[in-house]
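A.,

Following up on our hallway conversation. Structure tokens first:
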């Protein structure tokens, strides 16, 4: 569309105002109500043109000016409103002139007025789909679906005005009017063809308007920002227009023109607000309230009609029509209050989320936190709860860790630095982290101070819980690292004792024996001294062997984990118990951490021992395998199982404690087929002795919902 000079808006408004004045004067001079169906008063149509032109001029003067080919242009919506206002004004003057010519018999040009009013008037419908499409960003939608669909829709809407220009009056069913040529622009086509075109064009109009409305709904659900607010302003105006037109059905004849004028005025005014001051009021609250009243009004009408019909049918014989209506009104009054409250709550929750129901928002957050395990899962739950409570399409929650790192949970789309709003999260004036939201507002509307307080309370409590869980996780990780270092040190000390000090002491005993054999004639005191030395060294050697056994099961170093468990199973494989040990892959060659080896050996050994002592089983299997970053230890037997009512013994408690020391899990269950299953998962990474805290290696741990 070409650039319009800036004074154009004011000129169009002046022209529309003049047209309204002319139409009003002509209508006042045509007071006779008996007029042909071809004519009607035109002042309301001219008023509609003025209501379109004023917002159009405002958008032209103060609205955004899109840049095309390096030059700023008038917004297309301003052009549509100004041109549409002129069309409506001309149509109003034409209608008034036609009415005046037919009734008062003054003036010529009735045929020209009829052609302008009746034929060109069909184009008055075009501004509506155009503004619905163009108000979002000033252009046609992009994409393989929406652009062709919108173009086809606009073409379908324009088919009716094109057909009206040439369709014969006989096809339309227009009776002849004296002094008026009803077919001033005949097109030589057979009447059957015109009949098909006329019917098709009329049928396509309501269908074609669905596509711009569907596009408007889709855009109003997009990312937060001015473009989405503009779409929601138009969605609100469309809702008001539909409700206004539907209301006409319940009013006496003659209100249709006024309803159409009000609807067009609301749509045009919404265009101006959407493009000039979209933040004038909270459009989401306005949209929610309008939707509530529309639903309540519609529901009351439906209930009223149903109750009146039921009262008339059931009580009609005993009650007069007025009495039946009174009964229906009383019932509707009783239903109205609860119905309004329910509809209001449902619509508010749909449009605004849980921000108007703090208790529900807090309860939802508490339930989400209860279902979460780790700190990262809790933060994901927080982000999801905020998104649900405030209808936010993007949320980032960041909590600082005690070690200087941070935990981050992302819900929805990525937020660019220039398109996000940061809210600090503090507790007792100490920073806990921050909350990132779209810069255009929280979801479907902007945040009020009340919303910010509720949001701060929700995130603060959740951040405290997540930080406490993170501290617990850090404590567990530290515990696992200490245990890993301890077991590695024990393995090293055992090797030093077994391979170093043990042989030295053994050699010393042999040296004493050699001396006594080589010098049998030593004096008795010397012999006694050598004997005491030998006994002391032998005792020290025994103490070393005891320490070696206590530091770490010797079988682990001698036979490996699988071999040590098989040796233990052979010792218990008596009394008819068949114990089998198998492993997926070569675990012994995988250099398992010492802490994991010891924990797996102790857990499996204790489980097999419990089976041999208490289960009365004939078969027991031990299976070892790597599962991701953990070692799985599974012990199954076919014994009598565990009585659920029996208190847990020390043995079962020790199994779970050994797994928890490494940050793992141990579950004892009784399968439906009988027997007992002990399944432990021992993390391998937690038992590695890197010497650095886990959070230091990954300063920012991100979890995405």
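Then the amino acids I'd put at each of the 705 positions:
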């Amino acid at each position: 569309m070409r650039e319009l000079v800036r004074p154009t808006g004011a000129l169009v408004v002046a022209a529309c105002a003049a047209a309204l004045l002319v139409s009003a004067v002509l209508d006042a001079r045509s007071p006779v109500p008996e007029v042909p169906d071809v004519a009607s008063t035109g002042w309301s149509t001219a008023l509609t043109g003025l209501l379109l032109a004023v917002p159009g001029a405002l958008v032209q003067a103060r609205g955004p000016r899109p840049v095309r080919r390096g030059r700023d242009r008038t917004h297309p919506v301003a052009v549509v409103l100004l041109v549409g206002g002129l069309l409506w004004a001309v149509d109003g003057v034409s209608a008034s002139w036609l009415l005046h010519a037919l009734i008062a018999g003054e003036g010529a040009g009735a045929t020209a007025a009829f052609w302008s009013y009746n034929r060109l008037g069909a184009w008055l419908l075009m501004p509506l789909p155009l503004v619905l499409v163009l108000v979002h960003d000033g252009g046609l939608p992009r994409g393989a679906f929406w652009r062709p669909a919108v173009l086809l829709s606009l073409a379908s809407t324009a088919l009716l005005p094109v057909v009206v220009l040439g369709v014969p009056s006989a096809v339309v069913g227009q009776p002849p009017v004296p002094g008026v040529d009803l077919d001033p622009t005949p097109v030589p086509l057979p009447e059957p063809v015109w009949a098909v075109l006329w019917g098709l064009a009329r049928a396509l109009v309501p269908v074609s308007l669905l596509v711009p409305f569907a596009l408007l709904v889709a855009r109003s659900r997009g990312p937060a920002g001015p473009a989405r607010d503009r779409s929601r302003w138009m969605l609100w105006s469309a809702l008001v227009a539909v409700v206004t037109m539907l209301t006409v059905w319940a009013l006496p004849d003659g209100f249709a023109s006024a309803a159409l004028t009000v609807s067009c005025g609301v749509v045009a005014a919404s265009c101006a607000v959407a493009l000039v001051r979209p933040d004038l009021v909270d459009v989401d609250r306005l949209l929610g309230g309008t939707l509530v009243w529309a639903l309540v009004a519609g529901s009351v009408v439906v209930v009223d009609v149903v109750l009146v019909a039921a009262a008339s049918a059931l009580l009609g014989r005993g009650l007069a029509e007025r009495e039946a209506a009174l009964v229906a009104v009383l019932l509707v009054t009783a239903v109205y209050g609860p119905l309004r409250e329910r509809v209001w709550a449902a619509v508010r929750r749909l449009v605004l989320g849980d921000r108007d129901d703090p208790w529900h928002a807090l309860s939802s957050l508490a339930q989400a936190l209860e279902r979460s395990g780790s700190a990262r899962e809790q933060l994901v739950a927080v982000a999801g709860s905020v998104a649900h409570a405030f209808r936010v399409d993007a949320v980032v929650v960041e909590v600082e860790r005690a070690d200087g790192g941070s935990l981050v949970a992302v819900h929805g789309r990525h937020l660019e630095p220039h398109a996000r709003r940061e809210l600090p999260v503090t507790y007792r004036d100490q920073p806990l982290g921050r909350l990132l939201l779209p810069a255009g507002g929280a979801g479907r509307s902007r945040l009020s101070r009340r919303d910010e307080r509720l949001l701060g309370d929700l995130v603060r409590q959740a951040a405290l819980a997540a930080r406490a869980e993170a501290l617990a996780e850090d404590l567990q990780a530290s515990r696992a690292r200490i245990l890993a270092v301890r077991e590695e040190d024990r393995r090293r000390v055992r090797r030093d004792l077994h391979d170093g000090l043990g042989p030295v002491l053994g050699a010393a005993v042999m040296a004493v024996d050699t001396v006594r054999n080589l010098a049998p004639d030593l004096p008795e005191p010397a012999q006694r001294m050598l004997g005491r030395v030998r006994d002391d060294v032998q005792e020290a050697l025994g103490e070393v062997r005891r320490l070696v056994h206590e530091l770490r099961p010797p079988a682990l170093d001698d036979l490996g984990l699988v071999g040590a468990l098989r040796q233990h199973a052979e010792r218990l494989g008596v009394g008819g118990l068949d114990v089998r040990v198998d492993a997926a892959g070569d675990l012994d060659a995988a250099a398992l951490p010492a802490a994991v080896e010891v924990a797996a050996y102790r857990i499996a050994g204790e489980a097999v021992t419990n089976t041999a002592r208490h289960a009365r089983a004939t078969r027991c299997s031990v299976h070892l395998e790597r599962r991701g970053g953990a070692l799985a230890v599974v012990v199954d037997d076919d014994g009598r199982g565990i009585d659920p009512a029996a208190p847990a013994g020390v043995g079962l408690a020790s199994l779970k404690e050994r797994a928890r020391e490494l940050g793992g899990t141990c579950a004892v269950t009784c399968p439906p087929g009988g027997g007992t299953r002990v399944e432990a998962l021992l993390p391998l990474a937690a038992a590695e002795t890197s010497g650095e805290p886990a959070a230091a290696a990954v300063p920012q741990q991100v979890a995405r919902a």
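The domain at 8-280 is CATH 1.20.1070 (Rhopdopsin 7-helix transmembrane proteins). Curious whether your intuition agrees with the design.

B.
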